[in-house]
Amino acid sequence: MKKFVVLILTVVIVIIGIFLQKNLNKNNKEYELSKITEYNYFISEENDLYGVIDKQGNTIIDSKYTKIVIPNPEEDVFACWENEKISFYNSKHEQLFTQFEYVEPIKLKNVASSLNYEKSVLKYKKDNLYGLIDFKGNVIVKNVYEKIENLEPVEGKFIVEKNSKKGVIDLNGNKLVDVEYDSIISDGYYSKKDDYRKAGFIVSNTTNDGYRYGYINYYGKKILDTKYNEMSRITELEEIYIIASDNGKFGVYKEKKRIIPHEYQSIVYDDNTEDYIVQKNKKYGVISKEGKEIIDIKSESIDSRGIYLYSKKTNSNCVYDKNGNKVEISFDKTIYNTESEDYKISTVDNNNITSYGIMDKNGTQLVGETYRYIEYLYKNYFIAKDDRGLLGVINSNGKVVLELKYDSVQKIKQKELLQVIDESTKTTYIYSDDMKQILSMQNANIDIRDDYVLIYNESEKKYLKNDGTIIEDISKLKLTNFPDKIGEYNKKQVTLENIYYTKNIDE
Question: Of 3, 166, 215, 308, which sits most exposed with the smallest number of CB within 10 A?
Fold first, then answer.
């Protein structure tokens, strides 16, 4: 009987656990950071007043407001100002969120986005305190804070304030940093994969001796106490490395572990060599990323140029690699890595003039330093500039494959294509990655999309695949997210937040 009861209780606990987990996942999914894939609504301007249109050009909100914000262009929610008074409406012009004293979109601070406001939540006020709601008016965070602001430059995280102390919450209202600090800033970490969402927090409190800084990671775990004079994260590294000053002496921490003691006047991380250039007793040396001294602290100065470290001493100059080994190259020669493991760029400075050349991965000089500029392009091709300031393309053997006579030569971003411009004839040329000309067009504009490139002027349009193949049948292409018929709006400005599209949009 007892075994049966235990079994029943176990089953019940498992069921409850599954239920709670499902609800937790649902909640996290519901309030995760919104990703915009379609622009359904746009702001229109007429006679210095603003309204809203949809992507077909239909009027949704008449142009009668002094300001309009569309926080999320996929959501049917518009913030409309009449002078200082703000109201929210949907596409049926029904007023929203009337149960709250005040609602407003949350302004983003220095977030690299075409949208200037939080896309997932809004801020509301009730009883003179602030909380968060979603775009349907559901309360996510109760009104318990004196202030709620975007955490610069991280979207989806918020600095909250209570009793003049600050903390951090996320979209779900989860407390990431306790409300107990005088100031909080993002550590500035950024990655292409996670954006700023894995940035940690540098926190501080005021003492009789000034500010004292500490560090909390992106999970809300305290890493370093608030006892340091200065603090910064090495943002080039995915792992958490912190440079901190204790009573004016700098050291380095990896998470909580101190790997360089507090005994240096300055510590600078060099991303090229992944080493620290340190100063002590007015002399310079180099310490590896993990804290091992690799160049003794005896130099008058140490500069990082390209892939090497350049040390000046009283009686000699030396060049070192990232491991502290001496390198036999001229002190005025600098070598840079390229996007290709097979090639490097070399430069030599002479009478304040920098000349460029090409080397292979073993350091063999392939092209001498005879050009005013060289930039790796792709395959074995390089953009080159001559003494006249004109551009063309050479290969790794120094052979000219595109004559140096153009004003602009550049790779089209994320495409296997080259854009070349001759300003004298106002002609744009498009080349494939094997340096074959695909087309030319005068007075051309270029519009780059995920799956195609549009080259156009007033009289013609050409659509290209990412590899340069001309697309003859464009019926299956998703040509644009912007209004495909503007109608009467052809002479008006159509905006998405602060971005103005003044030309006709008629694709």
Answer: 3
| CATH tag for 407-475 (out of 2.40.10, 1.10.10, 1.10.150, 1.20.1740) | 2.40.10
Region 277-302 average pLDDT: 97
Note the pTM of the prediction, 2 decimals: 0.79
pLDDT confidence bin for 124, thresholds 50/70/90: very high
Taking only the tens place, the pLDDT of each residue in 206-263 is 999 899 999 999 889 999 999 999 999 999 999 999 999 999 999 999 999 999 999 9
**Per-residue tokens: 337:** 């890595």
Question: Order of strands across the sheet with 95-96?
Answer: 67-69, 78-82, 85-89, 95-96
| Tokens representing residue 251 in the block | 């050291």
Backbone angles phi, psi at 114, to 5 degrees: -75, -10
- The domain locations on the chain are 38-91+477-507, 407-475
DSSP letters spanning 210-243: EEEEEEE-TTS-EEEEEEESEEEE-TT-SS-EEE
Query: For tokens 């030309």, what's the residue?
Result: 503
pLDDT of residue 496: 47
Q: Based on the number of CB atoms within 10 Å of its own CB, is 344 exposed (0-12), middle (13-18) or buried (19 or more)?
A: buried
Q: What burial letters (b/e) apply to 73-105, b meaning 16+ CB within 10 Å?
A: bbbbbbbbeeeeebebbeeeeeebbeebeebbb
CA distance 120 to 29: 11
Write out the two tokens for 245.
Answer: 């000053």
Count Cα atoms within 13 angstroms, Cβ side, for 273: 28
User: Which amino acid, residue 242?
Assistant: I
User: How far is it, in rounded angstroms, from Cα 293 to Cα 341?
Assistant: 28
CA distances from 305 to 67, 82, 102, 346 (A): 50, 56, 55, 11
Count of CB atoms within 10 A of residue 420's CB?
22
Question: For residues 107 and 101, is the Cβ–Cβ distance under 8 A?
Answer: no
Q: How far is CA 312 from CA 131, 291, 292, in A?
A: 58, 22, 21
